[in-house]
Specification:
about 280 residues, SH3 type barrels, 3 domains, globular, SH3-like_bac-type, transferase
Length: about 280
């Protein structure tokens, strides 16, 4: 699997409809060109609701709702010509492979893989490339400290972050000298709304930005989970001078996890790259 670098230069997505390539991250920005539906674009960077992309040598911004969704296979999977186990196979996809989901049709996902179009049974796709039964989640929603220690969760650094999507809580742990995880913080957070859910699985911190936004908002202290998904602050105005939405404990975002400003800053300042993140 290719290494992620500021939006994953080798990641390609597909347009779901005729899509405007704009000069800035704004629906009122000048249009560079219209990208036809079904076109492949190269992702340069992602920031929750906008992607910076390259198309036919032209670079600009596309609203995320008009692009395919990235998923990973967690086992050998057959790409089929129609959403049926009896349909003709197109190719076999290896575990941990990236596919781009165009739409979901019942239990089947309509996808692009290696520039080939077909259908995959959705159960075999995940946000992180791991099977759904990876951990024992018995205590995940009731006793997070017991969950991380009973499962002997590993992290390349002395910290570990978990987010409970059901209760909308984010936890930060520090490793004790005895190798067990000690809870440092438990914070209320806001997660993705049902139409743009937060990704689930095991991830690793890979980069950060002091802020990002558009002509309508700004967020601060953004720590990347994967791709265009971040832990970041609640919403500010575009200038970053005034908080415009401080709601926490809700499902409102485009998929990122919002935290109080001081909490987002703590992760941004203290949690190292490669730190393990578990979201469920």
């Amino acid at each position: 699997m290719k290494k992620y670098k500021r939006g994953q230069p080798n990641l390609y997505k597909y347009t779901l409809a005729n899509t405007n390539l704009r000069k800035e991250k704004s629906t009122s920005a000048d249009i560079i060109t219209v990208i036809p539906a079904g076109s492949m674009v190269q992702v340069i960077d992602g920031e929750e609701d906008w992607y910076e992309v390259s198309y036919n040598g032209q670079r600009g911004y596309v609203y995320s709702d008009y692009l395919s969704k990235t998923k990973y296979t967690w086992t050998d999977v057959t790409l089929r010509s129609y959403p049926s186990a009896e349909s003709n196979p197109v190719t076999t996809i290896l575990p941990k492979s990236i596919v781009q989901v165009l739409s979901v049709n019942g239990d089947w996902s309509h996808v692009m893989y290696d520039n080939q179009e077909g259908y995959i049974f959705s159960y075999f796709l995940s946000d992180d490339g791991n099977p759904p039964e990876g951990y024992d989640f018995e205590y995940f929603y009731t006793d997070m400290t017991m969950f991380v220690n009973d499962n002997q969760i590993k992290s390349p650094t002395t910290n570990l972050i978990t987010t409970d999507l059901e209760n909308k809580l984010t936890y930060v742990f520090e490793k004790n000298n005895d190798g067990l995880w000690k809870l440092l913080y438990k914070w209320s957070c806001t997660i993705g709304k049902p139409s743009t859910p937060t990704i689930e699985g095991t991830f690793y911190v890979n980069g950060r930005k002091p802020y990002f936004g558009s002509d309508t908002y700004r967020v601060k202290y953004a720590t990347r989970i994967r791709g265009s998904y971040y832990y970041h602050s609640i919403l500010f105005n575009a200038a970053g001078t005034e908080i415009t939405d401080d709601r926490l404990g809700m499902a409102l975002s485009h998929g990122c996890i919002r935290l109080a400003v001081e909490n987002a800053q703590w992760i941004y300042d203290n949690v190292l790259d490669k730190t393990t993140i578990i979201i469920n």
